[in-house]
Amino acid sequence: MLQLLGLTTxxxxxxxxxxxxxxxxxxxxxxxxxxxPSRVHDCLDELGQLMLVRASSEHPGQMRAVDPDVGLAExxxxxxxxxxxxxxxxxxxxxxxxxxxxxxxxxxxTHGERLLGMDAIHNCLERLCRAARTEIIGVQPGIQSPDDLxxxxxxxxAALARGVSMRSLFQGLARRHAHIADYAxxxxxxxxxVRTAPTVPQRMVVVDxxxxxxxxxxxxNRKGALLVTEPGIVSAxxxxxxxxxxxxxxxxxxxxxxxxxxxxxxxxxxxxxxxTGLTDEAVGQRLGVTDRTIRxxxxxxxxxxxxxxxxxxxxKAAQRGWL
Length: 323
What we know:
- The chain has three domains: about 1-65, Orthogonal Bundle (Arc Repressor Mutant, subunit A); about 75-250, Endonuclease, Chain A (2-Layer Sandwich); about 265-320, Arc Repressor Mutant, subunit A, CATH 1.10.10.10.
- It has an eight-stranded mixed β-sheet, sandwiched between helices. Strands 1-2 form a two-stranded antiparallel ribbon.
- About 55% of the residues lie in helices and about 15% in strands.
- The chain has helices at about 10-20, 25-35, 35-50, 70-105, 120-130, 145-160, 180-190, 230-245, 265-275, 280-285, 290-305, 310-320; strands spanning about 55, 65, 110-115, 135-140, 165-170, 195, 205, 210-215, 225-230, 250.
- It has twelve helices and ten strands.
């Protein structure tokens, strides 16, 4: 479990041994963990960088393990701060890409093509998948219908069979829908990679890092799409995808909730979005749920906080470090 916090298996074992046997020196730790003294020194260096060990006052020349309540909590706090910073970068990049596409979507150029209607979009996706040689990446916000997923299944599997790498990013709520989970597991079994996140960028498909397909209207992808080949826009979309991908969770795993507050990733993101001043409807659109669901989830959080109003809930959430 400690490996999720950045520790190697051996360093985690040394840390546990130090907690169990506070007086052990390097040689006894090496014997307990089945390591060489040199490797124990390396592990102590690793633990020191994470501030999980400090010089012992009782045993000069030795190190002592920092209590997990302090040391591990500080690591998690630093990781959450890093994650919040990456999410802020993702939000800024999303806004920049949206502005860039809005400036260009009204006109057709030699670097783009407007596709109107789902048939035109599916035809383009089939053409791109057949032509793919190295990589296909995709972002799927919200919930896709079984028909939409089935429309691309054959071509996705054919691309994977040719050795094309495929990374697919779904919104976290997709885990609760059997047809999406089944589709994602099919991709995994054939060598694809699938991750989920509470919020994801706008819908996109990028093939071989040269062709990108994005919706004309992010709120309704059935209105049409824009096929983009201009390197500047494709590069910006790729950067946006990588930021989202690096903060997402591989399918089949979950991020452990913080035992101190019991919030899920979804609830943390909900609080963060509400704190920026967004309405329930806007937050629901970001998270792929209805505003009624948002109100119900906020009510649940208020009950846990013992708050009688959203204002009071905001104050208490901040006091607890939830915001």
